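Homework help board

Subject: predicted structure for assignment chain

Our instructor gave us this sequence and asked us to write out the predicted structure in token form, then describe one feature. I got the tokens but I'm not sure how to describe them. Can anyone check?
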Amino acid sequence: MSPYLPQFLKAVRLYESPLTNWIHEVDFEGRLTHRIPLYENACAILILFMHKEGDLVREATTRLHRLLAFQTSSYLFPKYLHQYPDPSHPVDTLKQLSALQMIVHRASYLNSPISQALQEVITKGLLAIESFDFPPLWKRRYLALCSIRETGVAFSCKGADTWFEELLTEELIHISPTHERKAEACSPSCFKGGYSDRLSLLLEGPFWQEGVFVSCHPLEWSLFYTPTRSRLLRPHFCMLQAALVSPLQIDSLHPQDELLNGAVVGVGQEGCHLFWEGSLGHIHSLYFEQARPTSEPGVFLLDLHTPFSPLKKDLFEVLIYLNRHPDHQWFVQGKRATLFRMKDSLELTTQLRGQLMKWQVSFDTLEGEIAWVGQVAQGTRPLQLDSRKFQEEAILPAYDWKVGLRILRRSDFVTIRISCYQK
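My token output:
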């Protein structure tokens, strides 16, 4: 049982609408939207059943009957309630059926009619999508829901999302993973990104932001199971999914050492990040867009290997983002400023666990020729969850400091070294 179960229940109460009693998605200002996702509502029902308290079990039973009423004539569910009777994509259907199957597993004390009704719904849903050509990850999930283990299959996790789904697939077969399978699932080869135990943070991209906060991943509540982690005690919408996977021991995973005076490096396909703990436990994120790490701590490389076009919209080809927070201040040549040139000194002052820390940030050309003017402005990184989920909404607030190099001219092949080092 997860030690975060009380926090999961708080998340259920936070994201349910007092008007509909359904779980709603929220927008970038924390307001409930009109979208009612069936998957997260099934997870909320699971959380209520896991508490095994009379009032919560009765509430969960009522919610479950109401959710099952939205099964379509083709025995599938919509992704969102307002899309009924249109069925969801088969992969989304597998996620929904997985949550219902976990209710059967975790709430084994349910009376027979409820369990039988759930199993019938799951069976009909699986039959409705059996002809779909699933990718390997979801093919294993389909077989697991059919109580079939695919033999000779090794874990092939490439990131936190895949790892989470693989572990859930194992739970669906065994209720909890076997010792051997659990060891295999937690091997370093299964998750290449590593983690920071101090920050309770997986270091595998993509690293989404929720406003000024580093977004959590559902897997983190299973890996960092000490219920004193302030970052994991704050409500997150993905908390609802976290209830699907049991807590895991990760003895065979090695935490990444702290680099660059207390910061750790996270690497994703979208670029590199530096994470560190600021004042009052807030985790800060400095994001180097499209950069790659080097063996030298705090040094990143960025390749500009496309023809330069002076007609580009904003001419910013080198960008770093830092979450806006009172801990941070930018200085140019020792003074507060918003513009800097190639030979100017750019300095960031921040807090590391309550202690003042000063970083020198520099941009050096290793290959090719380039001329630029730098700018420090307010902006929003592309890795905002709000940018992905609520593109149709109003313009987003500026959650970040955006430091960009406005290119005046350059050769077609340029490599830039971005360095952060303590003064």
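Reply (TA_rk): Your tokens look well-formed. For the description, you could write something like this. The two ends are 47 Å apart (CA to CA). That's the kind of observation they're looking for.
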